[in-house]
Amino acid sequence: MADQAGQELANFSQAVRSHPQFTGSSEGISVDGLEEVLRSIFLTMQIQDAVRQVSLATTMLDFKVLQSWSGYCRSENMVGTATLTQLLTFLKATYDSISLAYQALDELVALSFNAGEDLPAFNQKFDFLLSRADFPTDQAALALNHYHRAMPVDIKKELFAADITN
Q: What is the Cα–Cα distance from 129 to 90, expressed in whole angstroms?
C-alpha cells in the first residue's frame, strides 16, 4: 500500500511539475485554474478517493496557504477527512473573494495606461474586466471614472461634457 501511495505521489508530482503553486495572490493561478488542473490530473490518473485527492492537492499549495488550510482543518475537526470539495470551497472563500476583484482592478489600472493605442481593443477589454470585477463601490461611477482617466485629452472633452458628468 505504501509503495502504491508513493508511486501515486511521484506520478502526481510529475504531472503538476509544469503548473505553478497556488499562492493565493492575484498574480498566481486562480482557484478555478487550480481546480481545473487538479480535476484533469485526477481524472487522468483515475484517483477518485476525495481524501486522497486532498492530500495530493495540498502539494500544490504555497506554504502559507497550506498552513492556513491546516489550521482550518484543525479548527473544523476534519484533519485527515477533508475532501477536495471542502479544500476548494475554503480556497474560494479565503482567497478568491479578495483576489479576483483586486486582480481585475489592477488589470483595469494597467489597461488605462494603454487606452490611446487601440481604442476598440481597450473598450472590449474594459467591458470584460468591469463585468468580471466585483468592486466595493458603485460600479457605474467607478467605470466612468476609469474610462474618463484612460481617454486621451482630446477625446475626453468630446465624450465627457459637463452635462454628462454632472
A: 25
Residues in CB range of 114: below 8 A, 6 or more apart? 122
SS3 category, 26: coil
- The grid cell for 104 is 481585475
Determine if the pTM surpasses 0.90.
Answer: no
Helices (H), the chain: 2-16, 31-45, 50-57, 63-75, 84-91, 97-112, 119-132, 139-150, 153-159, 162-165
- Residues 119-154 have pLDDT tens digits of 777 777 777 776 665 555 566 666 666 665 665 555
Residue 16 has pLDDT above 70, yes or no: yes
